[in-house]
């Protein structure tokens, strides 16, 4: 069972779930999923819990994995299944039934089970295509697999699908002309990044070129997001000696990447990142256990910080469906939820109105005081002398 953390100031709430936390997903609704473990008396398991208005619950359900520790998890876009990367290699899938009061899990069987068992790669990252039809796997051996295809021989650190129509799409018909072609941005363990065209068997379209001032930065994480019909934005977490940075990249019709904007987030390295569904908000967890919130509208900048959200480095971070809260996890077994809402800006009209009321009250008090003193027989000159003023005819 979990262990409730000490009360935190402000809009945060922390709960400890009894194991180092490595995987996190928060699909639509209050329920989120965590996985982790590690042996030595610590159970390897999936944990379900809930977040209600910034308050975390203890676990509501769990699934035990025996001696194999799940290190990553991804929920299908339909929300009906969860896929896990396992510490001993390969992946496992659980089908999810949420019709009852408590979620229920079941292992897949038949041909799908056999297909999953055929994947023995040490999977480090996973990403579902928004349609749910494809799952990209990045392996420790350098493989990138979509379906049954191996697309790279370099070590993989992160990846995400990118919609791409390809050159000359305006005059073409079909899915590529509609922007439904499939590309994949892959971040390599050496800190570089590349984009591959899945419709052409993993052909490398380009490698990222960092803008001036960011030459020594290494790519760490990527999330692809689209805002109100605009071209898809690749939100990237990048680290260099000066700290961690968030950069906004774009894949052009020519298949080349360009960076639109970047901002420094923290002095320490960034460990994990997520972006809201529209890309307006970006959350970064650092190696120091801090969480920072970055806004991309009207320009890219840090808008909120949650220092020491965890005692040690953050392992994962995720927004809820409407990005009103962000949830982060750590190897110290803690999960922390933070509200993303910003305090309202100062209402200068209200401040001015209050100031005018205050001045008016002072004047009324002064006039009433003068009236009372005159009723007591004091002359105007005596009143001036009492308050330290001199009459005009004495000047």
Shape: elongated
Strand content: 35-45%
**Helix-strand makeup class:** mainly beta
Terminus-to-terminus distance: 84 Å
Indicate the mean pLDDT. 86
* Helicity range: 10-25%
Side by side, the strands of the main sheet go 1-2-30-29-28
The count of β-strands is: 30
Low-confidence sequence ranges:
5-12, 169-178
Count every helix, treating DSSP H or I runs of 4 or more residues as helices. Answer: 3
Largest sheet: 5 strands, antiparallel
Spatial extent as radius of gyration: 29 Å
Question: Would you mind describing this structure in some detail?
Answer:
The chain is mainly beta and 395 residues long. Among the domains are: 1-121; 348-394. Helix content is 11%, strand content 43%. The chain has three helices and 30 strands. It has helices at 110-117, 348-375, 380-386; strands spanning 3-4, 13-16, 21-25, 31-36, 45-52, 55-56, 61-64, 70-75, 81-86, 91-97, 104-107, 123-128, 135-139, 144-146, 149-150, 156-163, 182-188, 193-197, 203-207, 218-225, 233-240, 243-251, 257-266, 270-275, 281-286, 291-295, 301-306, 314-319, 325-330, 334-339. A hairpin with a 5-residue loop joins strand 22 and strand 23. The chain is elongated and about 105 Å long.
Characteristics of this structure?
395 residues, mainly beta, 3 helices, 30 strands, elongated, endoplasmic reticulum, protein transport
Describe the SSE topology:
Blueprint: E1 3-4, E2 13-16, E3 21-25, E4 31-36, E5 45-52, E6 55-56, E7 61-64, E8 70-75, E9 81-86, E10 91-97, E11 104-107, H1 110-117, E12 123-128, E13 135-139, E14 144-146, E15 149-150, E16 156-163, E17 182-188, E18 193-197, E19 203-207, E20 218-225, E21 233-240, E22 243-251, E23 257-266, E24 270-275, E25 281-286, E26 291-295, E27 301-306, E28 314-319, E29 325-330, E30 334-339, H2 348-375, H3 380-386
Antiparallel strand pairs: 1-2, 2-30, 3-4, 4-5, 5-6, 5-7, 8-9, 9-10, 10-11, 12-13, 13-14, 14-15, 16-17, 17-18, 18-19, 20-21, 21-22, 22-23, 24-25, 25-26, 26-27, 28-29, 29-30
């Amino acid at each position: 069972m979990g262990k409730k953390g000490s009360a935190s100031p402000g809009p945060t709430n922390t709960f400890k779930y009894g194991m180092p936390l490595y995987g996190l997903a928060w699909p639509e609704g209050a329920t989120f999923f965590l996985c982790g473990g590690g042996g030595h008396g610590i159970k390897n398991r999936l944990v379900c819990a809930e977040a209600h208005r910034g308050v975390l619950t203890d676990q509501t359900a769990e699934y035990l994995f025996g001696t194999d520790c799940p290190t990553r998890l991804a929920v299908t876009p339909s929300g009906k299944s969860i896929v896990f990367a396992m510490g001993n290699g390969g992946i496992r899938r659980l089908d999810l039934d949420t019709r009852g009061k408590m979620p229920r899990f079941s292992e897949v069987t038949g041909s799908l089970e056999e297909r999953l068992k055929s994947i023995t790669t040490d999977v480090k990252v996973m990403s579902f295509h928004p349609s749910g039809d494809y799952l990209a796997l990045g392996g420790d051996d350098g493989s990138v697999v979509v379906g049954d295809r191996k697309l790279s021989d370099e070590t993989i650190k992160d990846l995400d699908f990118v919609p791409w129509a390809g050159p000359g799409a305006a005059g073409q018909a079909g899915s590529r002309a509609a922007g439904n072609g499939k590309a994949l941005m892959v971040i390599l363990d050496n800190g570089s990044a590349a984009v591959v065209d899945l419709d052409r068997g993993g052909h490398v379209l380009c490698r990222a070129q960092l803008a001036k001032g960011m030459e020594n930065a290494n790519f760490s994480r990527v999330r692809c997001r689209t805002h109100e019909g605009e071209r898809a934005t690749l939100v990237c977490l990048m680290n260099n000696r000066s700290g961690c940075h968030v950069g906004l990249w774009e894949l052009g019709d020519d298949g080349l990447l360009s960076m639109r904007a970047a901002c420094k987030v923290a002095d320490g390295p960034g460990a994990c990142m997520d972006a809201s569904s529209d890309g307006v908000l970006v959350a970064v967890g650092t190696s120091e256990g801090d969480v920072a919130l970055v806004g991309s509208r009207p320009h890219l900048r840090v808008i909120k910080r949650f220092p020491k959200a965890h005692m040690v480095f953050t392992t994962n971070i995720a927004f809820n469906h409407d990005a009103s809260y962000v949830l982060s996890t750590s190897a110290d077994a803690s999960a922390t939820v933070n509200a993303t809402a910003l305090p309202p800006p100062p209402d200068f009209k209200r401040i001015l109105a209050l100031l005018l009321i205050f001045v008016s009250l002072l004047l009324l008090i002064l006039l009433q005081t003068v009236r009372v003193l005159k009723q007591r027989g004091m002359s105007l000159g005596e009143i001036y002398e009492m308050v330290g003023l001199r009459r005009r005819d004495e000047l």
